[in-house]
C-alpha cells in the first residue's frame, strides 16, 4: 500500500519537491488503480518528459495523465474481459483476431498437452557415485599441517643473527602486522600530476642554485611579463615538436615562478653544446620580442649545465639490513640463492 512518505521519497529521487495537493492526488491514483508509488512516479517522469517538456507535477497535469494513461488502459482491459452471462458453452476462447469481420464460433480446444510435446524424463545421474573414487574433499585440515611445530618461526637466515640497530639489539623475528589494507590510490599506483610537477620543480630549483653558485652567476630573472630586466634565465630543456630534439625546436621551460612559461632558444651564437629533453640549465643571452611569433626568442650566448655536488660523508659503521617476505618455508627451492 502506497503512503505519502513513499511518494515524496520517490519524487525526491528525481530532485522534485511536490506540494501537498500533488501528494494527495498521487495517493488517490495509487489507491484507485492499485499501483505502487515507484511505478506512479516513474510513469509521471516519462509522461512529463514526452508531453510537458519536464514540467513540475500539478493536480491538473496528473488528471490529464490519468485520463490518457490509466483510464484508457482500464477501459481497454474492461472491453477485453468476457461476459459470463452471454458466454456460449461451445466457445472456449474469447480472443478474436482484429482482422476478422465475422463472428464465427470457434471449435472447442482440449486442455491436454499435445502428444508431440510429451517427453520422456531423463533419469538423473548421481555424480557423487560416479566420481566417488576420483574426487575427495577432506573435511578437516591435513594432519601434517596441524601437527607442525615451527609456526611463526624463522625458517631461513643469512649472516650475523645478532646485530644492533639504533643502539638496540635486533633479532630476526616474525610479527603479525595489520595495516587495514591498501588504499585505492596505492592499489592502482595513482599519482597526482600536481604533486609530481611540484617535485620536479623543487629538483630543478635545487640544481639551478648549484649551477649558479658554481659559475658565480646572478639571480635568474623572475619577472612574469615580457619586459625582462635580466639576461640570465634558468629552467628545463623541452622540445617544441613531438619528434627528436634539434636546434630549431629547443625551448626553455621556466620554473614555477613563471607558471611554466616557455621561451624559444636561438643557439646560433653558441659554438658547442649538448642538450637533452628534461635537462636543467642556466642560460645567458639577449631577450627579444617577436610580434609575429607566439613565443618570445632568446639569443643564447652561454649555456651552464654542469655542477658539483658534495657527497655526504660515509659513516664508519657497517650497514646491515633484514629483508623479510612471508610466508616462506625452508623447503622452497626459491631460497637457494642464499
UniProtKB/TrEMBL annotation:
Residues 91-123 have a biased composition (Polar residues). It is found in: Nucleus. One of its GO terms (biological process) is DNA replication initiation. Pfam families: OB_DPOA2, Pol_alpha_B_N. It comes from the Eukaryota. InterPro entries: DNA_pol_alpha_B_N_sf (IPR043034), DNA_pol_alpha_bsu (IPR016722), OB_DPOA2 (IPR054300), Pol_alpha_B_N (IPR013627). This is Uncharacterized protein. Residues 5-72 form the DNA polymerase alpha subunit B N-terminal domain. The keyword Nucleus applies. One of its GO terms (cellular component) is alpha DNA polymerase:primase complex. Residues 71-88 have a biased composition (Basic and acidic residues). Keywords: Nucleus. The lineage of its organism: Eukaryota, Metazoa, Ecdysozoa, Arthropoda, Hexapoda. Residues 201-288 form the DNA polymerase alpha subunit B OB domain.
Amino acid at each position: 500500500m502506497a503512503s505519502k512518505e513513499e511518494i515524496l521519497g520517490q519524487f525526491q529521487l528525481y530532485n522534485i519537491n511536490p506540494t501537498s495537493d500533488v501528494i494527495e492526488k498521487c495517493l488517490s491514483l495509487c489507491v484507485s488503480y492499485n499501483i505502487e508509488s515507484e511505478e506512479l512516479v516513474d510513469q509521471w517522469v516519462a509522461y512529463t518528459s514526452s508531453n510537458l517538456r519536464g514540467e513540475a507535477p500539478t493536480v491538473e497535469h496528473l488528471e490529464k495523465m490519468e485520463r490518457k494513461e490509466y483510464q484508457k488502459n482500464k477501459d481497454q482491459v474492461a472491453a477485453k474481459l468476457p461476459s459470463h452471462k452471454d458466454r456460449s458453452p461451445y466457445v472456449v476462447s474469447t480472443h478474436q483476431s482484429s482482422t476478422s469481420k465475422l463472428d464465427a464460433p470457434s471449435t472447442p480446444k482440449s486442455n491436454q498437452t499435445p502428444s508431440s510435446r510429451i517427453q520422456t524424463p531423463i533419469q538423473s545421474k548421481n555424480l557423487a557415485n560416479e566420481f566417488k573414487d576420483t574426487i575427495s574433499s577432506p573435511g578437516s585440515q591435513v594432519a601434517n599441517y596441524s601437527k607442525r611445530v615451527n609456526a611463526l618461526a624463522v625458517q631461513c637466515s643469512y649472516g650475523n643473527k645478532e646485530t644492533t640497530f639504533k643502539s638496540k639489539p635486533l633479532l630476526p623475528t616474525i610479527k603479525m602486522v595489520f595495516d587495514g589494507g591498501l588504499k585505492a590510490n596505492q592499489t592502482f599506483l595513482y599519482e597526482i600530476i600536481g604533486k609530481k610537477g611540484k617535485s620536479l620543480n623543487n629538483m630543478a630549483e635545487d640544481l639551478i642554485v648549484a649551477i649558479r653558485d658554481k659559475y658565480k652567476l646572478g639571480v635568474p630573472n623572475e619577472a612574469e611579463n615580457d619586459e625582462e630586466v635580466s639576461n640570465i634565465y634558468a629552467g628545463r630543456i623541452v622540445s617544441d615538436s613531438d619528434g627528436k630534439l634539434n636546434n630549431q625546436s629547443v625551448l626553455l621551460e621556466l620554473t614555477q615562478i613563471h607558471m611554466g612559461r616557455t621561451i624559444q632558444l636561438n643557439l646560433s651564437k653558441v659554438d658547442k653544446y649538448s642538450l637533452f629533453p628534461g635537462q636543467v640549465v642556466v642560460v645567458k643571452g639577449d631577450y627579444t620580442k617577436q610580434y609575429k611569433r607566439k613565443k618570445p626568442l632568446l639569443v643564447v650566448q652561454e649555456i651552464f649545465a654542469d655542477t658539483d655536488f658534495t657527497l655526504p660523508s660515509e659513516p664508519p659503521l657497517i650497514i646491515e639490513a633484514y629483508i623479510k617476505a612471508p610466508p616462506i618455508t625452508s623447503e622452497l627451492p626459491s631460497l637457494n640463492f642464499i
